[in-house]
Amino acid sequence: MKKHLTYKNIEAFVFRLWEREVSEDPISEKENELLRQWKIQAEKGLDAVYSTESKERVLSGLEHYFSQADIISIQPAKTFKTHLYKIAAVIILLLSLGGIFTYTMFIKPDVYLAKSGKRIVHLEDGSVVTLLPGAELTVEKSFPASTRVVDLKGNAIFSVAKSKTHPFIVRADGFSTKVLGTVFKISQSGRKKAVDLYEGKVAVSSPGVPVSFLTPNQKWTNFGIAHTTAVISLKQVKNSSRKVSSVLSLSFNDVPLKEVVAVLESSYSTKVLYPKEAEHKKITADFTGGTVGENIESLAFILGLEVQKKENTYILKK
């Protein structure tokens, strides 16, 4: 197919070949290859589920072009070929007069963008998404399906309609959040990701680390470091709008020591010193429920080092 041909010319050429195929006129190997290449290009990037559902919608829309007698009794050979021509005619008509409209209505995902301010999006399942400035939400035409899936760029607050049988999954940049019905906020700033839970329960998954389960007033974050996760408890201070945070769990999978130490220092407001030559050593560890001292003792054990504490500083040495 030549690149200078317009879209309509390509469509006409392809369906002309298809018409010959249906009528059993001979088609050369080269023409068959052109049809195959066009089919691959046309279906490129389309999800199998959405493609199947779109085909079902188109076929159901074609039913009224046939008489009831045709639907009940389809005779072989000639009648069958007549039906194929009818279908071909309708599809060509859709492509020539409303191809873009058909794609937009049945296949193309809905994209919601919050440009300069907040934008509230009401989804078909009753869920409400508040997009914060700069955020983008993509919702496929198949939504809501057995699993409710949306894609998010940027920050947003989700109030998910409850369903015990239809999980709601938000796919973000490098992690996903799965819920059955709850209120939570997703934040994304560069490599740093976070999920704040207000109501219900959520499961946050990220490659290379265990799934984290949150309950209300808890936060999941990766601190902007790959293969790192933390669950943090956020408690309201009495008679104040301020919240006090405490680390419930930390997980590292093959993370350089210098980055592990940076997380420990920021999480516990402490200082950790270690041998310079060990800064690139990869650490895999789960610190759950321990105090800062216990977690640093565990880290020292992994490194084969001793721990010495001076005021608010931990010194790891041979």
Outline the structure in words.
- With 318 residues, the chain is α+β, with helices and mostly antiparallel strands.
- Helix content is 33%, strand content 32%.
- The protein contains 7 helices and 19 strands.
- It has helices at 7-22, 29-43, 48-62, 68-72, 78-106, 257-268, 292-303; strands at 110-113, 119-122, 128-131, 136-139, 148-153, 156-159, 168-171, 176-179, 183-189, 192-199, 202-205, 212-214, 218-221, 228-236, 243-256, 271-273, 282-288, 306-310, 313-317.
- The strands form 3 sheets. The chain has a 9-stranded antiparallel beta sheet with strand order 2-3-6-9-10-13-14-15-17.
- A hairpin with a 4-residue loop joins strand 7 and strand 8.
- Helix 1 packs antiparallel against helix 5.
Question: What's the rounded overall pLDDT mean?
Answer: 80
Look at the helices and sheets and give the structural class.
alpha+beta
**Distance between the first and last residues' Cα:** 69 Å
β-strand percent reads 25-35%
Radius of gyration, whole Å: 29 Å
Shape: globular
Number of E-type strands:
19
Unreliable runs, pLDDT <50, ≥5 residues? Answer: 1-8, 70-74
Instruction: Name the helicity range.
Output: 25-40%
Count up the helices. 7
Strand/helix succession = HHHHHEEEEEEEEEEEEEEEHEEHEE
How are the strands of the biggest sheet laid out side by side?
2-3-6-9-10-13-14-15-17
Quick one: biggest sheet? Answer: 9 strands, antiparallel
